[in-house]
Batch of 2 targets.
Target 1
Amino acid sequence: MQINSPSSEIETQADNVRRATIDKSVKGPVLFLFLNAAFWLMASTILGVLAAVKLFSPSFLGDCAFITFGRLQPAHLNALVYGWGIQAGLGVMLWIMARRSGQELRNGRSILYVAGVFWNIAVTLGLVSILTGGNTSMQWLEMPSWIWPILLLSFLVYAWPMVIMFGKAFRPEGFMVSTWYILGACFWFPWIYLTANVCLNCLPSLGALAAGINAWFVHGLILLFFAPVAIGSAYYFIPKITGKPIASADLSKLGFWSLAFLAGWTGMQVYMGGPLPAWMPSIGAFTGTLLLLPVGVVGLNHHLTTLGKHDMVATSPTLRFTFLGSLFFPVTGVILALLSNYSTGVTLQFTHASYGFQIVSVYGFFSMCVFGAIYYIVPRLTGCEWLSVRLIRNHFWFSTYGIAAIVVTSLVAGIQQGGDLNNPEMWDQDFMQLSMNARPYMIARALAWGLITWSNIWFLIHLVLMVAGLGRRSSAPTLLHSSHDDTPHAAHA
Amino acid sequence: MSANPSNYSPDSIDLDRLHAAVKREKQDLQPGREPVPMLVIFLAMVVAVIAGGQLGLMTGEWNFETSNPFLAASSPDPRPGAGEGAASVDPFQTAMKKGASGYAVCGGCHQGNGMGIPGQFPPLAGSEWVVGGTERLIRVVQHGLVGAITVKGQSYNTPGGMQAFGAAMSATDLANVLTYIRNSWGNEATMITKEMVEKVRTEEKRVQQWTEAELAPFADKNVPGDIPAGPGATKPAA
């Protein structure tokens, strides 16, 4: 591990060779995960378009049960969460953990492939049974109950070498910020996934408490898996690309430990005023609001690290995606606080706003950071450069506008829907009418998913070409700005 | 620290094979030592105060038995059908409560006070059509009514008459609304039960609206049927 500047040419070369060896050792599994994840992302966005269209035009594509909203929406979210999110997250985790720890993946690559294949088969079967009517009706756990042990075991197969790598690494004080988060995610996902599935699938029916556990699971998955992976990735790539160290070791510690302590308590506030012991939603509301602390601290740290290097956001695809993803983290935190605390949550609970929260966290925040990581990692694994600046730009802008539109319309629709339902003046309006009022927002949501689908088609094609080794054979990175072509940009990618 | 840089000498083949992307990477750096800004500590306190507001009263004193923090922990579950009160649910009171919300549909013409609008919509309060025979009342709402009619000595002839509202309602909802109008605004009459409505529905399947003359034979007839015992049966079935 090279912490200080190498004192000689030979040391730089030795370090280059060592990093290249690490890349080579994880190449297969990481590319396998990225490619499969990108296909699932494609599937998920197309399902997202269909589900959104179904909300304002229920008879679209005919009336067969297979493509009703009740099946499309869970299929869309499960493909997003398990097909894309966790899978791509594992790829990023594995690469960063290997690189940051300075450890090669020495053996067990074949079992990683096996676990990856099982993961994808399980997700496929799960989605097929959702679409054919086997929905368990538990949010983000809609896949049939025999799927979860397969997913959990596959995850553990990936988590194990990462934990070993962390254990073997030389760990100078304060240096391993990004891998703390990734190590955390390795432990937190099995914890929440196992707990939720045992409670909901194995214990005899828990009644109202089961709904609370389900909500806790969704928040746990967002805050204890998606958030740490994305934050870890941002903590790795922002300094890597700007060439500046992480601004403050103190802020990193504060951000990490406050997230670790608070995140596991949230979730039940979704049922504020509901038939749970009152302190459960109350504690969720408390921590959901208090999470503004880690969110703000991490955001500030990233801001201080990027400060003065904003021109690189314009040129480096990795930094641009990571920057936007990190920008969406405070947005996610604020939306969570609005949904969690009693004064605004009472309007927003059970409305479109909660979909907005899920999408801003999984797509706006997590996926954008992961796209940034993929744009950095893939050229190093395949040995060729991204083909086209235009494709990357397309991917960036269509995703950005799409996500922003979904989040804004979902929030506004949620405020309107919740406000109307709670308004005593509206006593003579029936529920159907109030739902119909959200129609324009649902049309906007379908259009926004359309934009994202368009961006993902190009991302997928681009990634497939890269993995097939058909990228540019060049030593110059693919950078986004052509206006300063005379300046050397080699250092930015 | 797998390779020791000082005595490691990569040969030229190794270096040639390296992809340029690896060579142009920047060094990993030790994080900076910026202290936590005072503003962060201040804002953290603000957040903590707001967050703390979500605890307090809202926790219901950390009691597993309390789901509504604004009732004293000792109060029983207020819903009908829960706790000791379960046996004493009054079918009449339930019908009145549900009928009151169902009446929103009727109130558009007959008004919230049941007085109707003189010359346009006949009143329900004190109307012989409402407190009279149950058979005629059920038929009016189930199938509709058209043409000139006389209510409390006043004649009405609303264009289009009254629609067949009952066709789109469940028997229970219809029975609740009818019980409600028969026992509001000073009216007092027997309950109409779901079974009575169902009986009329099976006997009469017409689709046109009634006229006053057609309904005359039913004016004082009551649909036979049991009225629930207990506090709900305020009047014996006539």
Target 2
Amino acid sequence: MTDPNPAAAPASACPVNRLGEWRTVALVALFVLGMLSSLVVHAAQALRGTGDLAVIIERADGAVRIVETTHNSVLGRVEGLGDLSHASVVYSRDERYAYVFGRDGGLTKIDLLEQRIVRRIIQSGNSIGGAISQDGRLIAVSNYTPGGVRVFDAETLDPVADIPAEYAPGRRSKVVGLVDAPGQRFVFSLWDANQIWIADMHDPKHPRITKFRDIGKNPYDGMITPDGHYYLAGLFGEDGMALLDLWHPEQGVRRVLEHYGRGDQKLPVYKMPHLEGWTVAGTRAFVPAVGHHEVLVIDTQDWKQVASIPVYGQPVFVMARPDARQVWVNFAFPNNEAVQVIDTETLKVIETLKPGKGVLHMEFEPRGEEVWISVRDRSLVQVYDTGTLKMKRMITVHKPSGIFMSARAHRIGL
Amino acid sequence: MRRLALGILLSLASAALLAGVPDRQRQTELIDILQQDCGSCHGMTLKGGLGPSLLPDQLRGKPRDFLIATIREGRPGTAMPPWGPILKESEIAWLVDQLLAGKGAYRQ
């Protein structure tokens, strides 16, 4: 056996050098201490939660920024996500992984802590969005080409099931408005086929599909109420919305808000509106009118229209602050430089902000004290105080679009 | 007198030319509208989305005037809106020429 510390032998054999020896030991000890403390600092940096993280899409670069909302700073950037000209994100239930759905059919799983791609697949030619199942084990993607829904294992991204949206022999519809629903279900709408389908995923490889036909012309998006009780699809081809009670699917889909724009000339729509669970504020839903510069207010007890609020342009996102006291609205081209704030008590616009051209998305922090707004043409994300309605901070992000906070992990339908 | 006539003729000609082709700055804006705003349905890369692909092989066989009319008037009964209220005829024609030539799509 060799001496593990050969330097010790000559030192003990030569007492004259003892002082020098102690100096060396002290130096080594200091060095080791320094190393240890830097390790501790490192560990403290590496060990963090993910509940305050968010992903911001850089649509022109196929990249995402990872940011944190405690100090509002950028943590990192992940590249190589393909065509993100339309993109959305869902989160794993541990809030560590983000699943990014790209325009080009790309599905990418990102590790937020290690800031890297875990796995990336191209699962179709053209996709629009996705959802994560109630149990967190399945990722579903809604596709335009080939029209349908594909389901993947959330851990590995291996294929699990394929649900072609075939509504007539050889004819497949583009799929929109895909959400997760309680009871391990996915619900989605068929743009070309005027249908809503429910896929029961209890047996993941053999989804049980329930189809609802003639729900209204061209559903453009769908959302589920935050309690998971109702699925609401917006209609592009006619004035009205389609409502499905997920407690009682056997009762079928019923039309609500029929003829909301009665008598008015429809205005051109230069960007398709979006629906999300954020749209519900208390017992009222605030939804974009299509082809009218209005936000419609619906009572979620009887699903009748309560009011219509004139706004700055064609609404795209109509989003309630988490406490439901305000609703923030952004607009389609050519009015996409503004954001309006609606007071949900008086149903009046209380502020018109002008963040700049190309306001594409807004995201509230989970308790609603701040809202993040992406301003594409200025390559900025602005953070507003929702109490004072004043901007607090600007973050440079190249051509930002969607902002997705990790708290979405625990929201039905997001 | 003849010089004046020539001057008027020249200025008319250059005005016509200006009306025909958008200037450099406007061209940049038009490409931006094409990628960002047309792109919200047709994709920034123009490979399609809710709307069809606008790449040259998809447009082959469709007359230039038909494409100009489609952009100007939109296509009733579909999600394609009329761009006539937003863009000049000459700007629409220039955009159609870009599309037919395979130019204008966003490349990363």
